[in-house]
Amino acid sequence: MGFALMKGVAQSAAGGVNIGFADADEQKAQIVAKELKSTVYHSNTEAAEKGDYIFLAVKPQVLAAVLAEIAPVARKRLEAGNAPVLVSMAAGWSIEKIQSAVGSNAAVARIMPNTPALVSKGLIALAASPQVSGEKAAALETMLKGAGVVDRVEERYLNAVTGLSGSGPAFAYLFIEALADGGVLAGLPRDKALRYAAQTVFGSAAMVMETGKHPGELKDMVCSPGGTTIAGVTALESGAFRSSVIQAVEAAWRRATELA
After folding, report:
1. Helical H runs in 186-240?
2. Mean per-residue pLDDT of the chain
3. Are residues 228 and 180 in the same domain?
4. What is the mean pLDDT of residues 49-77?
5. Which residues contact 118 (CB under 8 A, 6 or more apart)?
6. Which has the higher per-residue pLDDT, 29 or 179?
7. Does the pLDDT of residue 143 top 80, yes or no?
8. What is the separation, in whole angstroms, between the first and last Cα of the chain?
9. Do 217 and 153 have their domain in common?
10. How many domains does the chain have?
11. pLDDT surpasses 80 at 85
12. Exposed / middle / buried, residue 204 (Cβ in 10 Å: 0-12, 13-18, 19+)
């Protein structure tokens, strides 16, 4: 995800920003740096010393160690009046919790991206502390737009965002895979079935976004009386399809709250 966001920043900035990063895998870091024409820092501390926006692209269980490592530098810069904006994508870590580790007046933003950011089609929810000025928040939003759609939300919604759009791609991939399997069962070659399934989901999502119509209305447009589609919808309903999806989002949301 860190690579996806760096790639998006590089695209949106069009050469107007310097990107540097630290990574535990030195070999991978050099490959990424060459592709993005960026700088590899030798440590998280060095990155914290030099960056204006510090993206904390680590898992929730690793964030405490990273914050402890960069906290002295962050506090020093805060006292000097040139504090960076810390941008966390770790589920469950509140702005307040991050500030307690690095300084109560630290400028902190939380984002929740999803994996389609890798192809610049992501959804990135953004919440920021009062210490992040409007100008800096706008600059951050502009940087992130290269990876997809950016939507500002209140922090209290981020766990729900995690359950829906953060985890949602996995649910969508399961559906695409199952849809393709259905095509294979009906006689389509595997490659065509997968292509048709993916394009069908892609096009259906575009219909929702571009027409503004409710998905239920669009579904009804496809369901002719006594036709093939309503027969398929009936089969999905008999398997509690919608209830299962709702429960999947709820389970992911609950897990995000447990990580707090």
Report:
1. 190-211, 215-222, 228-238
2. 93
3. yes
4. 93
5. 3, 4, 7
6. 179
7. yes
8. 20
9. no
10. 2
11. yes
12. middle
